[in-house]
Write a structure and sequence with these properties.
CATH topology of the largest domain in chain A: Rossmann fold
Structural class of chain B: alpha/beta
Helix content of chain A: 25-40%
Radius of gyration of chain A: 19 Å
Distance between the termini of chain B: 74 Å
Oligomer: heterodimer
Number of domains of chain A: 2
Radius of gyration of chain B: 22 Å
Number of helices of chain A: 12
Strand order of the largest sheet of chain B: 1-2-3-7-6
Largest sheet of chain B: 5 strands, parallel
CATH topology of the largest domain in chain B: Rossmann fold
Strand order of the largest sheet of chain A: 3-2-4-5-7-6-12
Strand content of chain A: 15-25%
Shape of chain A: globular
Strand content of chain B: 5-15%
CATH superfamily of the largest domain in chain A: Thiamin diphosphate (ThDP)-binding fold, Pyr/PP domains
CATH architecture of the largest domain in chain B: 3-Layer(aba) Sandwich
CATH class of the largest domain in chain B: Alpha Beta
Number of strands of chain A: 14
Helix content of chain B: 40-55%
Number of helices of chain B: 13
Number of domains of chain B: 2
CATH class of the largest domain in chain A: Alpha Beta
Structural class of chain A: alpha/beta
């Protein structure tokens, strides 16, 4: 076991994926000499060369579009989009081209491309640096959408995303980049838990908190506070937003009879609504209370001086817990 | 003539060969005859597909009428190891890549999105999103470069990529980004822009205030303006640009100046936005007529060849009529296939729901 930050775990995961397969190439803005604005790719260009860690022009559609061509040639590109709010110029290439290639060609062509993206707010930054665009991608057939919440998952999930023959949107919770955790790097990739399998982070009996990315830590904090009052919360890290690991979620909610979905993204049309409806269909007779959501509000991301009032925190989660426990 | 207005032309509309200071045709009589044959056949293909749409057999068709020289001239310059990304109008290029016309029809009849084997023909299927594939082509060319498949000096293995698009696409961000990536990485790609004067109803001047080929200068790649109705010149400039690409000298933009004689698609009505006199002006510059005159005047085109070619064209059309109607509808359940590499629980569940609906329909 070694202790790494989540950011360092991403870096080490990328390195291991590049060592394992010479077809893995990294592409993005400032990822080479600089090592990325967060340093996720630090040292990789030095060790693997400019042919495998490619500093690209500042053109997100261009990066994803050329990655598609490289994948058709036989490469396995890993694209870094510098910030969540910068992904939209690439939207056509991701949603219309990347997601549909396998389907369009009836399986003859496929695009093993990973798109890494720091996402979520809470770092006191300016506009376009704190967004949570996951629902757009999770509702797009043909894409896989995953997010890690701790260093061990960051290390293994990025490798799993890269070996996947499906295009994967890999969301990194940027405000947890410096969170440390144990990573067992001695495992083989096949022994690591699947990125598509939700993780029960904390077992509990009264209510299930369903979360992913940056709000897993927030949910854990809420669970610790609730425990003081004798309320036992189960915390689940979804890991994958597409596909959803419904069996794990259903098992938990059948046990606790209550569920709250927590995410930073806006509520309307979000992942929480999808999960809530799926659980309602599968757990209707087990539910003691309606399923609630604790999310960002249905506004654009606010200026950072008031972002703490936008982001779900432990207090808002506990308010929701109080509501579902009161039914 | 202003140098900026220079246009490469090797045969004019009267069928007279023109000498050019830079480009010489390497085509012998047999090759010219073969290009002529291809142009005649794809015109027939196009005419037949348009008719099939009118008869309700195709949902849509994008006619290539008038662009035969641009497509055959460039398409025949390709080598088997090259790779093509095209729009929905490059039936003539697909023909050059060995795609059967009936396979092309699958797309327009609505039985398949990607109607031919892209790996086999080394040509990706019709791209409908304007300009998006210019980036895929550039990425593919970057791949050839990274893999060391250019500049080895072996013209039979070095690879080049061609991206076909139109004048309208020149305004798309993706095409402009493709120029930037291609020049930055010196990628082995030829951007072949068929300026057919019209992006549906918008004339080229709505896209650009200068010749499209002049855009190249700003990106740092050679821009060549060629008479797009001159199959000899199209072949010559594309051959040279492909050689440049294969030998590692980087990308080229070719603007083939041509004219969309027909509608944008079978759903379009050009009489709403352009004058019939434009059509007349361009009819005089017909790409097939000029080569025919030349071949005829020089005793290369024999009556027997013409008769045989007409019969070939008729039998192609006949086969298209028959086989188009025989194209099977896909199984409804196939809509659930190939969304992902493996199975997906939710898609599987929805597939089972449709299976039930279909079996109930059979009962009733």
């Amino acid at each position: 076991m070694s202790e790494f930050t989540l950011l360092n775990a991403v870096n080490r995961g990328l390195r291991r994926a590049m060592e394992a397969d010479s077809k893995v190439i990294l592409m993005g803005e400032d990822i080479g000499k600089l090592g990325g604005v967060f340093r996720a790719t630090e040292g990789l260009q030095k060790d693997f060369g400019e042919g495998r860690v490619i500093d690209t022009p500042l053109a997100e559609s261009g990066i994803v579009g050329t990655a598609i061509g490289l994948a058709l040639y036989g490469y396995r590109p890993v694209v870094e989009i510098q910030f969540d709010g910068f992904v939209y110029p690439a939207f056509d290439q991701i949603v219309v081209q990347l997601a549909r290639m396998r389907y369009r060609s009836a399986g003859a062509l496929f695009l093993p491309i990973t798109i890494r993206m720091p996402f979520g707010g809470g770092i006191g930054s300016v506009e376009h640096h704190g967004e949570s665009p996951e629902a757009y991608f999770a509702s797009t057939p043909g894409l896989r959408v995953v997010t890690c919440a701790d260093p061990s998952d960051a290390y293994w999930m990025i490798q799993q995303a890269i070996v996947s023959d499906d295009p994967v949107i890999f969301l990194e919770p940027k405000r947890r980049y410096y969170q440390k955790g144990e990573v067992d790097t001695t495992l083989d990739i096949s022994e690591a838990p699947s990125m598509y399998k939700a993780r029960v982070v904390l077992e509990g009996s009264d209510c299930t908190l369903l979360s992913y990315g940056p709000t897993v830590a927030t949910s854990l904090q809420a669970a610790r506070m609730a425990a003081v009052d004798g309320v036992s919360l189960e915390v689940i890290d979804l890991r994958s937003l597409s596909p959803l690991d419904l069996p794990t979620l259903i098992e938990s909610v059948k046990k606790t009879g209550r569920a709250i979905v927590v995410h930073e993204a806006s509520s309307s049309g979000g992942v929480g609504g999808e999960i809530g409806l799926c659980l309602m269909q599968s757990c209707f007779y087990y539910l003691h209370a309606p399923i609630l959501r604790v999310t960002g509000y249905d506004t654009p991301y606010p200026p950072s001086r008031i972002e703490d009032d936008y982001l779900p925190d432990a207090d808002r989660i506990l308010d929701a817990v109080e509501k579902v426990m009161g039914y | 003539m202003d140098l900026q207005d220079r246009i490469v032309q090797l045969i004019d509309s009267t069928g007279t060969l023109i000498s050019d200071p830079r480009y010489q045709s390497t085509l012998n009589d047999a090759a010219l005859l073969s290009l002529y044959q291809d142009m005649v056949l794809i015109r027939k293909l196009d005419e037949q597909a348009t008719a099939l749409q009118r008869q309700g057999e195709l949902g849509l068709w994008a006619p290539l009428l008038g662009q035969e020289a641009a497509q055959i001239g460039s398409g025949r310059a390709l080598k088997s190891q090259d790779y093509v990304f095209s729009t929905y109008r490059e039936h003539g290029v697909a023909w050059c890549r060995g795609v059967d016309p009936v396979e092309m029809l699958r797309f327009w009849r609505g039985t398949m999105h990607q109607p031919w084997d892209a790996n086999f023909h080394r040509m990706y299927g019709y791209q409908v999103i304007i300009g998006a594939h210019a980036l895929h082509a550039t990425g593919y060319a970057m791949g050839a470069h990274l893999a060391g498949r250019i500049g080895t000096g072996n013209p039979e293995t070095d690879q080049a990529v061609v991206a076909y698009f139109g004048d309208g696409a020149m305004s798309e961000g993706d095409v402009n980004e493709a120029f930037i990536f291609a020049t930055t990485y010196k990628s082995p790609i030829v951007f072949f822009c068929q300026n057919n004067q019209w992006a549906i109803s918008e004339p080229t001047k709505r896209q650009s205030s200068i010749h499209l080929s002049e855009r190249a200068k700003g990106f740092g790649l050679p821009g060549i303006r060629v008479d797009g109705n001159d199959v000899i010149a199209c072949h010559a400039v594309t051959t040279e640009a492909l050689d440049r690409a294969r030998s590692g000298e980087g990308p080229t933009l070719i603007e083939a100046v041509t004219y969309r004689m027909g509608a944008h698609t079978t759903s379009d009505d050009p009489t709403k936005y352009r004058a019939g006199s434009d059509d007349d002006f361009w009819r005089e510059k017909d790409p097939i007529d000029r080569l025919k005159i030349y071949l005829h005047n020089n005793g290369i085109l024999k009556v027997e060849f013409e008769t045989e070619l007409a019969a070939k064209a008729d039998s192609l059309a006949e086969r298209m009529r028959v086989e188009c109607r025989e194209l099977p509808n896909p199984d409804a359940l196939s809509m659930f296939n190939h969304v992902y590499s493996g199975s997906d629980a939710r898609i599987d569940e929805q597939k089972r729901e449709v299976e039930v609906i279909l079996s109930e329909r059979e009962v009733h």
